[in-house]
Amino acid sequence: MQPLIDYARSFRQQTAARPEEFARLAEGQAPQALFITCSDSRVIPSLITGARPGELFELRTAGNILPPYDPEQPTGEAATIEYAVEILGVRDVVVCGHSHCGAVGALVRGDDLTAVPAVRDWLTHAAPRADGTKADGDPAIADAAQSHVLAQILRLRSYPYLARRLDAGQLRLHAWFYEIHTGTVLAHRPPADTFVAHPARPVRAAPP
Ligand code: ZN
Predict the structure, then answer these.
(1) Distance between CA 144 and CA 32 in Å, rounded?
(2) Is 185 helix (H, G, I), strand (E, B) or coil?
(3) How many angstroms does the Cα of residue 118 sit away from the middle of ligand 1?
């Protein structure tokens, strides 16, 4: 932990080199997308996308699971999504699963989670797709994790304020899958119902 503390203590010196960029952030935010992904420490949205401060509104949960929409049971997840869409006017929502996901692995294997009851109960929200997930023994559990992403996309569609915007053509949903061992980002292509690598295009330089 100490290296992290030391870095945080010196971070102010780095912002001093870019005072205008950071001062602008005080004026408000207009993020390009809501990025929903797992809490896994190996998945870093700004690293994957090259996003600078202010460009991504993030929601991270164990296993990038979203709870069912329930107006009687407000959740942090629903509040974050609602704020992104209704207040910030975000027009793109990414759900990004990943390889080697502990949560999806536990679901696929049917692990005994008695010792972590909050995790056990949270994973009941996972709602796998009707076509099921495959416990094929692959340590990367890619098939299961990709199916899991699509299940969360379906769940998002059940959030009424999202459904309204989707119907009006004002919102786009993106299902992504990140391979943590290769750095490859795959995107779901509905016509083929498969995840494929993003075609290479010129990109801007990553933030320093
Ligand atoms: Zn995960």
Answers:
(1) 29
(2) strand
(3) 16
pLDDT in tens, 123-179: 988 865 444 444 444 545 788 889 999 999 999 999 999 999 999 999 999 999 999
Identify which of 158, 98, 167 has the alpha carbon closest to the alpha carbon of residue 127.
Answer: 158
CA of 61 to the centre of ligand 1 (A): 8
Distance CA 103, CA 86 (A): 30
**CATH H-level, domain 32-197: superfamily:** Carbonic anhydrase (3.40.1050.10)
Distance 151 CA to ligand 1 centre (A): 15
CB count within 10 Å of CB 180 equals: 16
Q: Which residues contact 61 (CB under 8 A, 6 or more apart)?
A: 36, 38, 39, 77, 122
Q: Pseudo-torsion of CA 50, 53, 59, 60, nearest 10°?
A: 70
**Sign of the CA dihedral with 104 first, then 126, 54, and 17 last:** negative
Residues 6+ away with beta carbon under 8 Å from 37: 43, 45, 58, 59, 60, 64, 94, 95, 96, 97, 98, 178
Ligand 1 centroid–CA 24 distance in Å is 33
Cα of 38 vs centre of ligand 1, distance in Å, is 5
